[in-house]
Amino acid sequence: MTPETLPDGIAILDFGGQYCHLIARRVREMNVYSEILPSDATRAELESFGSVMNVKGVIFSGSPSSVKAEDALILDPNILEMGVPVLGLCYGIQLIAEMHGGELAKAREYGMTKAYIDEPVGVLEGLDACEQVWMSHGDTVFEAPEGFRVMAHTDRAPVAAMRHDEKQIWGLQWHPEVVHTERGGEMLRNYVFNVCGCEPNWRPLDRVEEAIRTIKDAVGDGKAIIALSGGVDSSVAAALAGKALEGNLMAVHVDHGLMREKEPAEVEAAFKDRGLNLVVVDARGRFLRRLEGVVDPEEKRKIIGEEFIRVFEEEARRFGVEYLIQGTIYPDRIESGLTRNSETIKTHHNVGGLPLQMMFKEVIDPLGDLYKDEVRGLGERLGLPEEIVWRQPFPGPGLAVRIIGPITEAKLEALRKADAIVCAEVEAHPFRDRLWQYFAVMTNTKTTGVKGDERAYGWTIAVRLVESVDAMTASFSKAPWEVLERISNRIGNEVPGVTKVVYDITHKPPSTIEWE
Ligand code: XMP
């Protein structure tokens, strides 16, 4: 390709922040190419990107660490002289300040914050005097370095945004890439189009073809096995693998006893005639035995991951399978800390928790770079039924991470009933379309209630209804009161052993979507 036919693009240096990939994604959504590079990428490396894209700007991401730490990640200073506009976000602005002699100190700011815009120019052009932004940082820039101007402040951060007087160096302390920063999209658009001058001339590749090719190249004439939970991700991965491998794919649905009401039967009905050689394995007893008395969520995930792989091994051996295909998607990988510099929040059972190398020649993640909405788009292109494509996500370890404390048959049974009520009531109401996930949680708390005229001492069920675009951030839903009331009444009346129903009103962050 000649430079004229190359797409304009933004390089993102990954300092390990949770939202690094969200930044890339926001840029790509504007039809501008973006690539993520490790934080130690040099100016020369960025310039050699000239064969892939015209690098029109460089963004420095956030980071879990401090610029003041001894082993702080640093930046090739020559990048600042490359002649393209740079934008530091969170750790990025602190790094710029530190490199230019600004004043920083430990001072935490967290959550939704009011930012007062002192200079609405460049990246902040068109913004109001006060904007809602999302903050998550432990260090704060207290004085801008010489040659820089303060563009915004908050009640706690005197330098919440800054720019260089002459050079194209910009910094924001907040995260414009997360939805809680209300006009974050405009800020990034200002940077990409007005400051960097990008043309929106990038079109994503056909993901279906790309994914099928990936699977075919990896498996060749071999045989592969896929874990089909019935969720969106594994269903789409199975449909892709089915197309790529035809008769050489075996789909295994493991009933680990931690599924929702009627789920294994529904999965079997939906997939049995789709040419995937579907096998349903009843492994309820062995999973529940191993989980007996286990309280720690990471331990639960680990046990489930291990048991899963054992079941697979047994099936794979019977069919002489060498490859494992998974429906792991991008946020699972980030949150499992598998990208360089990022911190582990949860080990998702189908990623880090599995001793995968043991028996398969290779593990293939055809959806490993995609976000949930992209996976859904792919499912639609593949012609999967709507109920599957738009099914709410369900974690691999299933109800195990929605039962706090030890898992028992009695808790499982009550949770299944309560969850079915939540689903039925939500699905009967149009506000369901706003929700990303809706489910019940069995807390480990017993409370006193009255049933009939008698004192009862029973479980507390929590209801979690969240809105989200990609599970990286989420908001609790301001659900209609009448729906919450019906859910509460029905659970109280229909689920034995439950005396209290509570509604979870925490956003992610600081919470996660699941309770464990
Ligand atoms: P959290 O709870 O981390 O969840 O906000 C983000 C998304 O991931 C799902 N989730 C899991 N999926 N194995 C999975 O396959 C897991 O261990 C797991 N934990 C959470 C969760 O339902 C949400 O959609």
At a glance:
The protein is α/β, with parallel strands linked by helices and 516 residues long. It has helices spanning 20-29, 43-47, 91-99, 184-195, 207-219, 232-245, 263-271, 284-291, 297-319, 330-335, 372-381, 386-389, 409-427, 481-494, and strands at 8-14, 33-38, 54-60, 86-89, 103-117, 130-143, 148-153, 161-164, 169-172, 224-227, 249-255, 279-282, 323-325, 362-364, 437-451, 454-467, 475-476, 498-503. Xanthosine-5'-monophosphate is lined by residues 301, 335, 346, 348-350, 393, 395-397, 401, 437, 471, 508, 512-514.
Identify low-pLDDT runs: none
Annotated CATH architecture of the largest domain? 3-Layer(aba) Sandwich
CATH superfamily of the largest domain: Class I glutamine amidotransferase (GATase) domain
Query: And the CATH topology of the largest domain?
Result: Rossmann fold
What is the CATH class designation of the largest domain?
Answer: Alpha Beta
DSSP, total strands? 18
The N- to C-terminal Cα distance equals 48 Å
Count helical runs: 14
Number of domains as seen in the coordinates: 3
Largest beta sheet: strand ordering: 2-1-3-4-9-8-7-5-6
Strand content: 15-25%
Which word captures the global form?
A: globular
Which whole number gives the mean pLDDT? Answer: 90
The level of helicity is 25-40%
The main β sheet shows up as: 9 strands, mixed
Radius of gyration: 25 Å
